[in-house]
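Re: your question from the hallway

Yes, I did run it. Sequences:
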Amino acid sequence: MSESTVPNIVIRRLPLYARELGLLEAEGCAYISSKELGHRLDVTPAQIRKDLSYFGRFGRQGRGYDVGDLRQRLRRILGLDGRVQRMVLVGVGQLGRAVLDYAGFPMQGFHVVRAFDSDPEVIGRVIADVQVDDVADLPGYLERQPVALAIVTVPAAAARSVVETLVAGGVNAILSYAPIATAVPDGVHLRQIDPVMELQSMAYYIRQGELNHTAEVEPGG
Amino acid sequence: MSESTVPNIVIRRLPLYARELGLLEAEGCAYISSKELGHRLDVTPAQIRKDLSYFGRFGRQGRGYDVGDLRQRLRRILGLDGRVQRMVLVGVGQLGRAVLDYAGFPMQGFHVVRAFDSDPEVIGRVIADVQVDDVADLPGYLERQPVALAIVTVPAAAARSVVETLVAGGVNAILSYAPIATAVPDGVHLRQIDPVMELQSMAYYIRQGELNHTAEVEPGG
DNA sequence: TAGATTGTTAATCGATTAACAATC
DNA sequence: TAGATTGTTAATCGATTAACAATC
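Structure:
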């Protein structure tokens, strides 16, 4: 309960810290200061120390942080220590297959235990070691095998109903690649990945750059 | 210059508004209020009006916003009106291919004009209508054909050097799928997509949910 | 010990929201 | 006109940063 007051934005930075600590560990670095870690991540040292302070004391004055220890502790805080995260995936089109094939998920302990689709062509097949079932069987599956995490890779038109089914089935964290706004009840976490929106917002700055450049070249404009 | 003072977080919401307005247009909706739009996007009406106010006045009191008009104006602000955004893609592995095949990019006007890789197996091939060149030729290509946007889908170990090359070649907006911190100079925009980090931060809340549940079931814990 | 760096508090900064006059 | 909703200002809220005593 007390930890539920940690700002969401802090929680979202913890994996960033943990990831960098993993790299540092691989580099053979035993200790690191908030200053150096912040430099590597383009984050202020004060922010790192403040973020960590929500969870306890992890460093040594004059020395910094034990790289391996802090990484372990962050992973424990995130609930990633020594456990496999089971996920279902809905939507086995091109994108869904790329997700199933992506090695980064299992490498970090996230395993797709079952996939679902509505296309008879793929139902019944096994793709990247994952069995594909009829999406109509999704509610039944979730009842028999509760899962907390889901990845949604269906077309936008299908996403809302899929998310509803997942939520009804007890899934409380969903990563959606569908480019459509989707409401979820309190207590359910939905993250959306939309590369097109990222590009569109960057386009603004590209255009600004062009305008400035034009202004320099043609001061009268 | 004056517009460069618009907060980045506002710029990042504009594509969200534009996207929803596109859906509303498709639904045949002619006018919408900030209240209704906010409801659909889970954003407060005040925030929408405030965001828009950075760019001018777009609505009518008592009526709301003309859906098509506002969408057009937002697209113009973002620099998306009637122009194709040319991009290069670096890294034609599984993920790179999925990006090349993804219809959402061209549908929104973002076209990969050339891809690059270091693997002799793919260099010279044409994938999804895009020619794949040797990444060693990337600097030369950018010199001949300046491009503002790039997508990076190489392994983490290669990402830093690729980003450096892109920046040196004049690219000022990069969308990277590589899970590694990468510094870029001022004026260059780098966005990273890391689904694993999203899952990791959601894992925190899954665990919190479990802890709460345990606490309810076993009040003594 | 001297130097470095933490953890934490208070100050600052910036973003969100509430409120309301203007007006369609 | 009455009702609705904008655009904008001021108030609130929350996150970041600076500063520093504590201490390794």
